[in-house]
Amino acid sequence: MLKLYHHLISANSRRVWIALLEKELEFELIEMKLDGDQFKPEFLAINPFHHIPVLVDDDFSVVESLAILDYLEAKYPKPNLLPTAEKAIATVRMVEMVTINELMPAINPLFRQMIGLSDNDPQQIEQAKQKSATVLAFFEKLIGDRPYFGSEQLTYADIVAGSTIPWLPQMGLALEDYPQLQTWCDRLMQRPSWQTTQPSPEAIEAFKSRMRALMTQNQSQ
Ligand SMILES: N[C@@H](CCC(=O)N[C@@H](CS)C(=O)NCC(=O)O)C(=O)O
């Protein structure tokens, strides 16, 4: 059976978890604490970069969430989550890469603020908000009045962007200036795959205090 090493609060692993659920596959979830367990030799043997997610399919391990999504699509093409028409596939890849290469780094200072670290530089926070606004405006235009990015159906674009964008309001970035994205977000939240993978408020609070402790400890070293 497929095994997914993941963490409840990780957007990187949530996108794989959602894809497994959308494809209605059987899989075993292996929850990592990321409290040092990712450095144990058993885990480093499957991912020397000590990151989750990792997908293990018998004797084959895949690291990097986007590579895992491609593997799932190639092995289990139904339902199809990666279109082949030229504009649709370009849109999916654009949304995936812009989420990972532009949005996720941009929100880092907002993430630190959300977990309660007190080292926030107001200028960095302002820059983070501006960079994020550029991405959100781009996505707002790209989705237009379609139900999903690049397609009338759910694709990996929605799964990748939709594992990060719903966090933004908790980071002080309301979506009200982006009505199409807000409607899209609400639509995703109604899907069982998003509901199943949504961490509880208690899990979020526990994660914040663990991260705070870890990052404070790292800073004082
Ligand atoms: N590019 C990787 C990023 C994975 C990643 O950064 N995972 C984080 C959790 S969100 C992690 O495992 N952190 C623990 C560590 O690096 O020790 C992917 O998309 O799979």
TrEMBL record:
PANTHER family: GLUTATHIONE S-TRANSFERASE GSTA, GLUTATHIONE S-TRANSFERASE-RELATED. Residues 85-215 form the GST C-terminal domain. This is Glutathione S-transferase family protein. Pfam families: GST_C, GST_N_3. It comes from Mojavia pulchra JT2-VF2. Residues 1-80 form the GST N-terminal domain. It comes from the Bacteria.
